[in-house]
Amino acid sequence: MIALLKKDWRVYQVATIGCILIVLTIHIIAAITFVDYDRPIQQSDVLETFFTAGLIGLLVSAGFAGIYGGGAFSLERRERSADFLAVMPTTRGRIITSKAIVSILCPLVIWLFHLCEISFIFSLDPARFGNKGDYWIVVTIIFGASVMFFGLAWLLSTFLSSAAISFGIAIVILLGSLTLIETARQRHSISDLTAQQIDYAWTFGMGTICFIAGVIYYLRRVEP
Amino acid sequence: MSETAGDSPIRLEHVTRRFGKMLAVNDLTLSIPRATTFGFIGLNGAGKTTAIRMMVGLLAPSSGSIHVDGIEVPRDRDRVKTHIGYVPDRPNVYPWMRVEEAISFVRSFQPKWNQARCDELMKMFELDPRKRAKHLSKGQAAKLSMLLAICHDPAVLIFDEPTSGLDPLVREEFLEGVLSVTSERQQTVLFSSHTLSDVQRLADNIGIMHEGKLLLHAPVDELLDRTKRIRAVLEEENGKHEAPPGMVFQRVRGREWMITVENFRQEQIEFVRSRNRISHLDVQDMSLDDVFKDFVRGQKEAV
């Protein structure tokens, strides 16, 4: 299992480094805004800037969840190393467990880092960032979107040979379905709270179902 | 060796594989005796790789049964993997892995990994352990694939066109490697290749695949012994000619009439002499290359 985990970590290394670089860049840009600041820097300015950077980081990690899901099987299939792995005397169960651990853990760590960041900033000055309910709604919707994005891309990756196509189809379905929910909300005068609950239930539920479907399909499939 | 493998570690019975409407392998029945080398030949798209992928559990047959070392594939595909060494047509080791990492990766899965043998082959193949797979030459990558496939001493070794794309010198070295590793052990080897001289050198038996079907399955020596080319010179250019029984393929160019026959016997010569007006006749031995080409051409003409 250790060998599989090390291998999967290495398969995702480029994506992980890319994600870390983007997140760092966002924070560096946030810091640069204070160079040549046109007035004395207040604590509230710093908090607001980094709160925004943290929220963007959350969205970036949601995007990377799709990359990790989309690359789960298709990256190896594309470069034919899936065949190499498939002739190793290990079970499909172990292979998929290792993939699931690495591909969930990597975006989750980045996601949690940003959650901690914005929670910390929020706790320093709660009044400045709206009420607590609004804050949690944003976080849960981004989390739900991350789960759906990951689950959809993961499922598509079990039978497609391109991580980019898996990622692309997943993002179209995710954004398309959220737009439909929003349109329905406006037409049928559904309250904001109910719409948010529908969004969350849909994205989280759909993501989980797709992930499980991908696992079952891969376990039953003979081809790598 | 598996208890139920008997004398045929590779056994396929009525195996068919379809891809949509295309029939890639059509009712293939094949049995390869233990400790022999089987040469698997055929044109591109004949169904060799599909058949091989089914044997190693990378593809499920549409119908029929496959047993490798007594284990049913793909039903018990996880169990069969310690019994098989598979060298694909294109090396498929993770490109970012160093040679030593690839060895360590495979070793972690193979309970019967023979490190002494691995070290010996590393020296023999002159592989640099620090080199990444993506930086290896084609020949070195093929050798690494072979090393990874054989160091757990599998009962069955399957090579799927491993020499394709290699230059003659590297191909020679690779074949020397195959010969040296297989001659010491009682392994059953399936060797698929387009280079028939390689197959002739390695194989005890050959099978010719054509359009998903096994056209022929015979010991190489016996096949070459019993397949002959009768060269007759007709008295008239493009004159009437009646082919003998057992004709596989024939071609007339001007007065020259070439007939490839199987199960060669004297009666076939008598037949040609008695039924045709010919001025000269001789019998020629054939190379495996010519036998293969004529069997395939004959099949195409029959269709």
Distance between the termini of chain B: 42 Å
Would you count the extended β strands of chain A for me? Answer: 0
How many H/I helical runs of chain A? 9
- State the largest interface: A-B, 20 and 27 residues
Q: What sort of overall outline of chain A do the alpha carbons produce when their principal axes are compared?
A: globular
Instruction: State the secondary-structure class of chain B.
Output: alpha/beta
- Portion in strands of chain A: under 5%
Notes on the protein architecture:
With 224 residues, chain A is mainly α. Chain A is built from 9 helices and no strands. Chain A is globular and about 65 Å long. The two termini of chain A are 18 Å apart. With 303 residues, chain B is α/β, with parallel strands linked by helices. At the A-B interface, helix 1 and helix 5 of A face helix 2 and helix 3 of B.
Structure keywords:
heterodimer, A: 224 residues, mainly alpha, 9 helices, B: four-stranded antiparallel sheet, 10 helices, 14 strands, elongated
Itemize the secondary structure elements and their pairings.
The complex is a heterodimer of chains A (224) and B (303).
Chain A: H1 2-11, H2 13-32, H3 43-71, H4 74-78, H5 81-86, H6 92-124, H7 132-157, H8 163-187, H9 192-220
Chain B: E1 10-19, E2 22-32, E3 37-42, H1 48-55, E4 63-68, E5 71-73, H2 77-80, E6 84-87, H3 99-107, H4 115-125, H5 138-150, E7 156-160, H6 168-184, E8 188-192, H7 196-202, E9 205-210, E10 213-219, H8 220-226, E11 228-234, E12 247-253, E13 256-261, H9 266-275, E14 278-284, H10 288-302
Parallel strand pairs in B: 3-8, 3-9, 6-7, 7-8
Antiparallel strand pairs in B: 1-2, 1-4, 4-5, 9-10, 11-13, 11-14, 12-13
What is this entry, summarized?
The relative contact order of chain A is 0.13.
